[in-house]
Design goal:
heterodimer; A: about 425 residues; alpha/beta; Urease, subunit C, domain 1; TIM Barrel; 2 domains; 8-stranded mixed β-sheet; 7-stranded mixed β-sheet; 17 strands; B: about 1050 residues; Lipocalin; 4 domains; 24 helices; 46 strands; disordered C terminus
């Protein structure tokens, strides 16, 4: 309770002057696979300036403007929702609110950054579970567009931007099609146009490769693609199937993209060493999913993170799929399930903090509670990967404390108060 | 060698044909019978031979009787006698069929030959068609048309008939394969020369199915809708016949006349047969089922129902398994069915089920006989097969005195083969006799030409090989070296035609583009061909060909290991069990027991299970209990099974009957699918019981099925005995069709205002209906009065008014929630449960006052406009006001993580762990009125138990064992064993397929040809066209 009052003071004194704050008596989940059961975490303005084990280090109280005891609570680095339409959509069924899928097959020039809604009510309910950064990702077509990494607390898309135009998103053609729906699943079939579709997309990449910004006839699409070849942008290739992943490895070898990423990767564990050797990381699709083949083990999706970890494949967890914007708030529990099914707890934390930051390319500033990085973290009453104990009581983004409330909590309190009066 | 010899004089010749047999060739006297002319004829009257004798043939008489060398005497269209030797009168036309085999003609029961597809009037392309577009006074639904008679429109194409003849089919039961009540079928002979004689019985049977066919009317859009419509039609028939209402319905009048006809039901799956059996029982009727080929998977239930089945024998082809990335996707169920399908016939037969065979799906005689040989290889006798093609169908049709056997007095319809087709792969059909009239099918002389020939055309020599189909052989010519050895087949081209004993050959020498054109006659049993040739220079020369090798040109077959065949599992798919589950006595020792009762959570406690019930809780001395399986639960948590109040798994062909605003007559209970893998998956998440709900496409949806997830049991066994009736209602965006696109703006209601009125209208009609019936029931004792119409829809609504059926209502915003409670209060019924109820927290006090419970999502929102104010604190707030609250899935995936969803209520709103756990166990049991049997661990309740590795609300919790009524349906350890077994079974069958692939057998690519039971606009069966909007 004591610390809550202090926090409240801090919260309202946020703006303007620089402050040095030390957090102590905290179980720190660093984000890089380490854990410090009794940590000292010091921030100066927007950066961590000290992260130490209290058992082996001491501090001088006079060096700090404020010292807060977190009374044995858990501190985590900001969780990162990669590959999501959060902020680009409000209500799935209302077309007017959907800003993530434009007309056209090759749309690399379409950028999510400027469509990002910083006042999204959905985002409000996501950040209060510890997810503070998001990769706003376009959908549709063969090349969907360009994503950007955004903060979930901001005034406008400019100050929300962590990394502008971080990558191009390519939907690899499906090698199989069909499948019915959840209430009436149907077998899948071979996609007869698979080879043709690959040829078509390769042609587009060849055009883009050959495009010269100075001499070629201006083409917005091809210009947007250039970063994929130079390393300014990642190339996110969305694919799940075994056949696709093998073909993607070949594709990457041909074009030598500096930063290719596989998004989805359901079958990645079947590729194993070849994928590891290719050094292509995987953003693993929502593991709260059904097995994609009737015969597969019922818990296979839950176990894939542990398998990938064992195989040495770099991966992070993400939650794309049905109702993905709203479901971003359940990202911590995807990591929790991965933990229950064989992934070490701190590796599970890393899979939604440092791992996505490394894959996206923002690990210099984000992803872990380490000296020199941006002071972006949250505190939870208990284990944040478990729904019973994920109770976020403090949020700090880039050194700024933020509200832990949202409109849903306010509605709850309003109606609770109404009944209490009755 | 067989020759038909015709004489035109009246002399009688007798001569010795060989040493052993005395052949009598009898000359024929053409009788001149004068018939009165029913139909005027053009030209002089013609005569047919009156008496025909076939001799020296191997005759399958039907039953198990064979005459190795017998005779058939035919007079007019009938068999006079069949025997070893028959004396014929001098005016008999005699056919010597030495070496030939005769079978009774096959009877095809599943045919649409000669029936053109119905062309119905169609409405606007995308706009739903709510009413029938038929002009006359026919039944209100276009899928019900008993008035269609196949005989009225029968108009066969002779070519198609000949194709049937080639299969050996002499009779077809043909009808228009369209609609639920299809009309009558005609029994026709497949001759085609004189339709007046071909039609044996104009109305021989009536046909039914679950597929609505060409009707574009919106209703029904699901299989449960089809079932309800079928049932309502039967009730309407009774009403029309017994109560003589003051209107005319031509469909019903036609249907009334069909009561004595055999009824056939077309099924597409064994579960459909079980569904139709229920209908048959309800109306004290009987169907003959046209099967789909997987009936062996429901052997138990089918043999109990005492059904007759017509089985297809177009067994599935092996998949092309050359791409392992593709073949890994093939479900094990498909693989197993490929292996077991040929055993279907035998398994049913062995169970004493009466089976016929349909040749439907078999494209030619080769395909038919290879299927028959496959059948024979499963160990059935040829007589069983023959009966299933002849006497059994005849008997089903009540025609066993006329067709199906070769017996005195029966119609002379049979087929003649050059060899016994049951014994010899090379046997070919030569002719078919229908009603005593002969029809040649194969002008070919019966000589096997396949082989290699040396051709000599005046010194120009080539070697030619013939292979494949005898009528259209593949021909290849080789150039020869100096020793006349074949060396090259590329320089020569060869074209070959055969016509009776004549052959025409074109030999092209490619080097100088010269052609040798040959014409010749076959002699010496095919070993010599001689004739005239025209050479490139135009000269005529003699040529000859000598057979030098009787080469079997078929590629040698690699025989796969057919000795071992897998067992049928329950269900016959991945994770199915090898045997039907048996209940045992179990003792859980030393568990942390979440009782959900006043005792709360008990540490280190034992629970004893016997006869499917919990019989003791506490410290139990194991020595005192005999034959008990002990489960060490130390460090583990034992809870009652999770109950999912809102689930859509395990449902066949449509969760929505959205064709009408009220579809209270349909029931999910009719279409439970016991073979959904999600049953097993949910068991692995601790779910033991679920309410399978109708969708939310209309204000009053359909009745629910309350099931236990008994993996491997039949749909009937899954249904909970004595469970109360439930029905789905729905409000808001879905029933207004808000998110269905611009074309779906026709069906009332389109606003929340209209929704209210649908309810008032429905319940007012139900009240009037109730009154009519009670008035009728009062009067029946005194005088004879006409019964009102029995209406399945209003019956169901009346049950709600009588508190015999409970409502689970899909709902979102507070206004509509409030509205339905007002409708209920004023019409005198109660809403049992609001499901979803995302704004329930705003009206929790009103809900408490009405006495309605809430079954909600833990945290879903933002998927449509009406869930804008949804909050994850909903469950906690409603609970705080005394509302019985459950958390449900509505989602096959989330259904197996309901423990996690319950845990969210600890986070959002701070429920205690015990209260949170009840959200997915005891509370849904209460909402479903099942809490006397389920929902807690209490002595006397059902042993529906789950053993967890951890606190079940913890993210770490995994299911160790799931038990339903004392049966272990899921066991984490056993799961690994099953996974291994799946893998080995898959590997074994893939091996078998790979061998089959390389042995030249036809194969298919792995792909799913989408079956379209209903038109594409429908959102029922073809649900994948619509996004799930909960």
């Amino acid at each position: 309770m004591k610390y809550f009052i202090l926090l409240t003071l801090l919260f309202f004194s946020n703006s303007g002057f620089s402050q040095k704050v030390l957090y102590k008596d905290v179980i720190l989940h660093v984000g890089n696979g380490m854990r410090i059961d009794n940590a000292l975490v010091g921030c100066d303005n927007d950066r961590f300036i000290m992260v130490k084990n209290a058992l082996t280090s001491s501090y001088k109280a006079k060096n700090w403007d404020t010292i807060i005891s977190l009374e044995g609570k858990h501190m985590y680095p900001a969780f990162v929702a990669s590959n999501t339409t959060l902020g680009l959509t409000e209500i799935d069924a209302v077309r007017a609110t959907r800003d993530f899928d434009d007309v056209g097959e090759f749309n690399p020039h379409v950028r999510t950054q400027i469509a990002f809604n910083t006042e999204s009510r959905v985002s409000e309910t996501v950040r209060t579970n510890g997810v503070l950064l998001t990769q706003a990702t376009p959908r549709g077509g063969r090349v969907s567009g360009t994503s950007s990494v955004m903060r979930l607390f901001a005034w406008n898309w400019e100050d929300a931007t962590v990394l502008k135009d971080d990558g191009i998103h390519l939907n690899w053609p499906n090698s199989i099609q069909g499948g019915g729906w959840w209430a009436e699943p149907k077998p899948k079939e071979r996609n007869k146009n698979y080879s043709k579709e690959i040829v078509k997309l390769e042609q587009f990449f060849q055009l883009a490769f050959a495009y010269d910004v100075n001499t070629s006839k201006f083409d917005q699409r091809l210009q947007a693609m250039k970063g994929c070849f130079t390393g300014l942008k990642r190339l996110y290739i969305h694919a799940n199937e075994l056949q696709q992943i093998h073909d993607i490895i070949d594709f990457v070898n041909v074009f030598k993209f500096p930063f290719p990423v596989i998004v989805g990767g359901y079958d990645a564990h079947l590729v194993g060493k070849k994928l590891k050797d290719s050094k292509i990381p995987v953003m693993l699709d929502r593991i709260h999913g059904l097995p994609q083949i009737e015969d597969e083990a019922t818990d296979l999706p839950y176990r894939i993170p542990a398998i990938l970890n064992q195989q040495g494949i770099q991966f992070c967890l993400q939650g794309s799929g049905d109702m993905e914007a709203m479901n971003s708030r359940n990202l911590p529990f995807l990591a929790g399930t991965a933990m229950a099914y064989g992934l070490d707890e701190e590796a599970a934390v890393a899979s939604i903090s440092l791992a996505p930051c490394e894959i996206i390319g923002i690990a210099k500033d984000y992803g872990s509670v380490e000296k020199g990085k941006k002071a972006s973290f949250f505190v939870s009453e208990g284990n944040a990967l478990d729904m019973m104990t994920n109770k976020v009581t403090l949020i700090c983004l880039d050194g700024v404390l933020q509200s832990t409330s949202n409109f849903q909590l306010e509605l709850y309190e309003r109606y609770k108060a109404k009944y209490e009066k009755q | 060698m067989y020759n038909q010899i015709l004489f035109d004089s009246i002399f009688l010749f007798i001569f010795e044909a060989n040493m052993k047999k005395k052949l009598t060739l009898i000359l024929l006297l053409l009788s001149t019978q004068v018939l009165s002319q029913y139909r005027p004829q053009n030209g002089v009257s013609k005569s047919q031979p009156q008496s025909i004798l076939i001799i020296n043939a191997k005759i399958y008489k039907g039953g198990k009787a064979i005459l190795e060398s017998g005779s058939i005497l035919i007079e007019n269209d009938k068999v006079v006698s069949v025997g070893r030797t028959i004396k014929a009168s001098e005016h008999t036309l005699v056919f010597d069929m030495e070496g030939r085999t005769i079978l009774p003609s096959f009877i095809e029961l599943n045919s649409s030959v000669g029936i053109a597809p119905q062309i119905l009037k169609k409405g606007k392309k995308y706009t739903p068609q709510t009413n029938s577009l038929k002009q006359n006074s026919f039944y209100w639904n276009q899928a019900v048309h008993p008035e269609l008679n196949a005989s009225d429109v029968y108009n066969p194409d002779t070519k198609v008939l000949r194709k049937l003849n080639n299969l050996g089919i002499g009779y077809c039961l043909t009808r228009s394969d369209d609609g639920l009540i299809q009309g009558t079928a005609a029994l026709v002979a497949t001759h085609g020369n004189d339709l007046s004689k071909d039609i044996l019985e104009a109305k021989a049977a009536a046909f039914y199915s679950f597929s609505k066919g060409s009707s574009m009317q919106s209703y029904p859009s699901s299989q449960m809708g089809s079932i309800a419509l079928l049932r309502q039609s039967f009730y309407d028939l009774n009403y029309y016949s017994n109560s003589s209402p003051d209107f005319t319905d031509l469909s019903m009048e036609a249907w009334e006349q069909q009561s004595s006809l055999p009824r056939f039901f077309i099924s597409k799956d064994k579960l459909e047969i079980l569904r139709a059996v229920k209908i048959a029982k309800e109306f004290d009727s009987e169907f003959i089922y046209v099967g789909s080929g997987n009936e062996y998977e429901a052997l138990e239930a089918l043999s109990e129902s005492n059904v007759k089945v017509v089985l297809p024998i177009n067994f599935p082809k092996a998949y092309d398994v050359s791409d392992p990335y593709i073949s890994r996707l093939i479900p094990l169920s498909d693989l197993k069915h490929w292996e077991l399908a040929p055993f279907n016939f035998k398994k049913l037969l062995d169970r004493g089920i009466r089976v016929s065979i349909t040749t439907a799906g078999l494209k030619d005689a080769k395909h038919l006989w290879s299927s028959i040989r496959t059948l024979l290889s499963t160990g059935v006798s040829k007589f069983d097969v023959l009966q299933a093609l002849t006497s059994e169908p005849a008997s089903i049709l009540g025609k066993k005195d006329q067709i199906g056997m070769l017996k005195s007095g029966m119609l002379a319809s049979f087929t003649v083969y050059d060899l016994d087709p049951f014994e010899n792969e090379k046997a070919k059909i030569n002719e078919i006799w229908i009603h005593g009239a002969q029809q040649h099918l194969n002008t070919f002389n019966g000589i096997e030409l396949a082989g290699a020939y040396d051709i000599n055309i005046d010194g120009f020599r080539r070697k030619v090989t013939l292979s494949g189909n005898t009528n259209k052989p593949l021909c290849k010519a080789y150039e020869l070296d100096k020793e006349f050895k074949p060396i090259d087949s590329t320089k020569c081209k060869c074209d070959f035609q055969i016509n009776g004993n004549d052959i025409n050959v074109k030999l092209i020498d490619k080097r100088n583009s010269s052609a040798y054109i040959l014409k010749g006659k076959i002699s010496g049993n095919g070993s010599i061909i001689e004739g005239d040739a025209t050479l490139p220079d135009g000269s005529w020369k003699k040529w000859s060909a000598l057979k030098v090798a009787e080469k079997d040109v078929d590629k040698p077959k690699i025989s796969s290991d057919t000795v071992y065949v897998g067992k049928c599992w329950f269900p016959n798919m991945a994770f199915g069990s090898d045997s039907l589950s048996k209940a045992s006595k179990f003792l859980f020792r030393n568990a942390t027991v979440w009782t959900n009762e006043a005792d709360g959570i008990l540490e280190a406690t034992d629970v004893l299970v016997e006869n499917g019930k919990i019989i003791k809780i506490g410290k139990i001395e194991k020595n005192k209990i005999a034959d008990v399986q002990i489960i060490d639960a130390t460090g583990k948590h034992l809870t009652s099974g999770i109950i999912d109040e809102h689930s859509h798994i395990a449902i066949s062909k449509g969760v929505n009957e959205g064709g009408q605003a009220i579809s209270a007559e349909v029931s999910i209970g009719d279409v439970v699918n016991s073979e959904d893998i999600n049953i097993y998956r949910q068991l692995s998440g601790g779910v033991t019981c679920a309410q399978l709900l109708h969708g939310s496409a209309n204000p009053i949806g359909g009745q629910s099925a309350l099931v236990k997830l008994k993996w491997g049991a039949s749909p009937e066994e899954m249904l909970i005995n004595g469970a109360p009736g439930f029905i789905k209602f729905a409000l808001g965006e879905n029933v207004k069709q808000s998110n269905w696109g611009a074309f779906n703006t026709v069906r009332f209601p389109q606003t929340r205002m209209g929704v209210e009125q649908v309810f008032y209208d429905g319940f007012h009609r139900a009240r009037i209906y109730k009154d009519e019936w009670s008035a009728f029931e009062k009067k029946t004792n005194t005088k004879k009065v006409k019964a009102p119409r029995f209406d399945l829809e209003l019956e169901t609504l009346a049950e709600i008014l009588d508190s015999k059926r409970f409502i689970t209502c899909h709902s979102y915003v507070q206004s509509e929630i409030n509205m339905l409670m007002h409708v209920a209060d004023s019409m005198g019924f109660k809403v049992n449960t609001f499901t979803h109820i995302l704004e329930g927290y705003k009206v929790a006090d009103k809900m408490k006052a009405h006495g309605v419970g809430g079954s909600t999502f833990s945290d879903w929102w933002a998927y449509k406009y009406e869930v804008n104010d949804a909050i994850p604190y909903n469950a906690a707030l409603m609970s705080s006001q005394g509302v019985t609250v459950a958390i449900n899935s509505d989602d096959a995936e989330m259904g197996r993580r309901l423990n996690q969803e319950a845990a969210k209520s600890v986070k959002y709103g701070g429920l205690s762990q015990e209260e949170a756990w009840k959200l997915v166990t005891l509370n849904p049991a209460k909402l479903l009125h099942l809490d006397d049997e389920m929902g807690s661990i209490k002595v006397g309740k059902d042993a529906d138990l789950v053993l967890w590795t951890d606190n079940p609300l913890s993210i770490l919790a995994k299911v160790q064992k799931t038990m339903i009524e004392g049966h272990l349906y899921y066991d984490a350890d056993q799961n690994d064993v099953l996974a291994d077994r799946n893998r080995m079974e898959r590997a074994r069958i893939i091996q078998k397929m790979a061998l089959d692939n390389t042995s030249g057998n036809p194969m298919r690519q792995y792909q799913h040809s989408k079956e379209r039971f209903f038109h594409c606009d429908s959102h029922g069966e073809e649900g994948e066209t619509k996004t799930n909007l909960h």
